[in-house]
Amino acid sequence: MTWLYANGEKVDQVVYARFGPGVLVSCHGGPAVRSAIEAALIGAGVTRSLAPDLWNGRTRLAAEVARLLPDLHGRAGVALGLRTLTDGERGLRELLVAPDPVWVEALCQARWLFSPPRIQLWGPVNAGKSSLLNALCGADLSAVADEPGLTRDVIEGGFEHAGVVFRVFDAPGEWPQATGVNAAALELARTWKTQADLVLTLVPPGAAGSGEWSLFSRSDEDPQARQPGVSVHSRATVEALKARLVVHFTGKLLALPAERQFAFPPALLTELQELAAGRVDAQAIATRWLDAW
Ligand SMILES: Nc1nc2c(ncn2[C@@H]2O[C@H](COP(=O)(O)OP(=O)(O)OP(=O)(O)O)[C@@H](O)[C@H]2O)c(=O)[nH]1
Ligand SMILES: [Mg+2]
Q1: Which of 79, 158, 214, 264 could bridge across to 268 with cysteines, CB 3.0–4.6 Å?
Q2: Is pLDDT of 214 > 60?
Q3: Distance of CA 76 to CAs 12, 59, 107, Å?
Q4: Is the CB of 144 inside a 6 Å radius of any atom of ligand 1?
């Protein structure tokens, strides 16, 4: 991964990898960015060719990973995608010879690198949901005040931690007095909640709550605050929450030895799960993903 400069100014990231007879470049932007990159490469002595046989003799795994490279999110996703492009075929062969369910389960967490997990903040009015959204994302995305029922919509933010990208959603608070527009907003938020990959329930001081993903919010106000607590005035508690989310969604994958970590495409991950459960044989997967394509 490297940075693209135009007129001496840093404009964006570019991902590149050796691929077949050439170099595969993946970047954001339109034709102008593409021309700038081509000009820089040609200036560095690279010859332009349409490489009509780029896929010739390559496997479906290589082609799929190359195609999906721009869909990988965060530093961890890009790094794993590039590794899959170079070493993925070796890794897949190793797995097909000796299917290891623990390894497959860990690899399945690569799904979150293709499609960042959706975290829904939930809880009563004034629990500190909007404040936490802003603290997690490092920006004032949602209005914050003492007034209960201030948030009337689902508001989306995002952040990257340890190379992993997350999407976070604020919501209106739950309260019995909600009527009219507020009640409708709450109803809509309940639908969003069902689509979340994880619901973080904020429990403000004095309220009751339990469950693995209950967070005791505004913990600086309450010396007796139960754990895990979070306060937007304590950077350490916000960082600890982010670290916990990284472990929950990608901990097994990122704890694998480096040479075993891959971002296999989601379709292949599903097939590997079937293999680990004994419902499909290794030869069928090898034929589909590793034979010349
Ligand atoms: N001391 C302290 N105050 C906080 C913290 N988080 C939020 N607050 C305050 O609590 C009040 C409510 O915060 P919000 O973030 O608006 O709460 P909310 O859950 O979004 O509320 P609704 O949108 O009404 O559902 C505001 O006055 C915040 O400044 C915290 O960690 N510590
Ligand atoms: Mg709010």
Answers
A1: 264
A2: yes
A3: 17, 24, 13
A4: yes
List strands edge to edge, sheet with 2-6.
2-6, 9-19, 22-27
Mutation probe of ligand 1 site: the residue of 146, 152, 218 with most atoms within 8 A of C-beta: 218
* pTM of structure: 0.87
Q: Where are the alpha helices (DSSP H) in 69-179?
A: 74-97, 101-107, 111-114, 129-137
Task: Round to whole Å and give the CA distance between 117 and 262.
Answer: 18
Pairing state between β 229-230 and 9-19:
unpaired
3-state secondary structure of 40: helix
CA of 169 to the centre of ligand 2 (A): 11
Enumerate domains of the chain plus CATH numbers.
1-54 (no CATH), 116-231 (3.40.50.300)
For the chain, the straight-line distance linking the first and the last C-alpha, in angstroms and rounded, comes to 27
- Kindly report the protein residue whose alpha carbon is nearest to atom 8 of ligand 1: 128
Fill in the amino acid letter for 38. E
Q: Which tokens belong to 219?
A: 């913990």
Give pLDDT tens digits for 8-57: 777 666 777 776 667 777 777 778 778 878 888 888 888 776 555 556 67
